[in-house]
Specification:
198 residues, 24% helix, five-stranded antiparallel β-sheet, alpha+beta, single chain
Length: 198
Amino acid sequence: MSLVYLVSTSKDGRRCWFVGTFSTRLNKYQQPIQAPQFDDENSKQVDLAFALEARDRWKKELGISVQITLEKYGQPIDEKDSAPLPTERFAEHASQFVPLTGGGVDGKGYFVRYSPERHKWYCRAIDISSMVAEHRDRETLWADSPEAVANKILELWSIKIAVPFEDPQAVVRAEQARQQAQAEQQKTFIPGLRPGCR
């Protein structure tokens, strides 16, 4: 199932996101009622099945209207006359390495993907290993070119949070050079001859 966001509006009109539940009061049977808690900065992704059930229950029991979105700042996906709710978050698109230059990051870069449906390049926070633990809820960055996505990563997420990857081609080239140097060294080796006797 997909991971989605539950979005509501605060009393002063600000957009806020579901972050968890807490017990506030007792119902007529003296049982605790779990009420949703919303925050205007933080967010928490939830399973699509939970989101659908919670949206209907909170509207009916608590009078709270929420919308379901795929992206933190995305459009609601469950409005009438729109496409059906998705069952998967993203299709797996092939990735491309975008190298960074200057600023001491030569030889490093980011992997970006191309979405043929949107005709745009993107990078998700979960695609960058340094962001998975604490920053996985960051929004997906979209742009018209791979370089523009890499620039957005640096501008919005910073290099300290989104630590760039080593260039996979540079690693392959270094390994090939090492193997070639080792082969050259073995060609000049003569068994039984000391290094100082050559």
